[in-house]
Amino acid sequence: MDCELFLVSNLDNETLKNTIYNILCEVVKDKVTIYESFSRLSCRYFTIDIETEDITGIDFIREEYKLEINAEIRIQLFGQTFNEGLEVLFYMIGDILSISNPDMVFVENGTDQLFRKENDIVIVNTNLDQYQKKYLSKKLINSLKYPYIERDLCSAR
Fold this sequence. Notes:
alpha+beta
């Protein structure tokens, strides 16, 4: 599964990258490999690329989601460890929320908005396909450790 986490971060670029690395190390409790000065991180569940300076299509993304996004985290979950990896990813996102509380949008396959966080609430999309409904469980959403509501995000744009 390919997904992106778009952030409105108040952290400078290096602090954001180091924070994500530290969170990932804590959540994975296993080896995390660093590439390209903390811009790419890899563990047994997924690889993430952190982009803070040259986000492709940033003007479109900001317009599409109505947020002043300034960081993109691209995630490639590995098929063999998909379910575990998704849990690790959501715990990592929950820790990002607890540390710096950024507004964010979590998107699958470049277009499907699974959830967003803005104004101190997570909004989980109710307009999901069969596959997304199966893996985006209440348990997974609860691992964000953040209050949430459910709403059709496709019509909310």
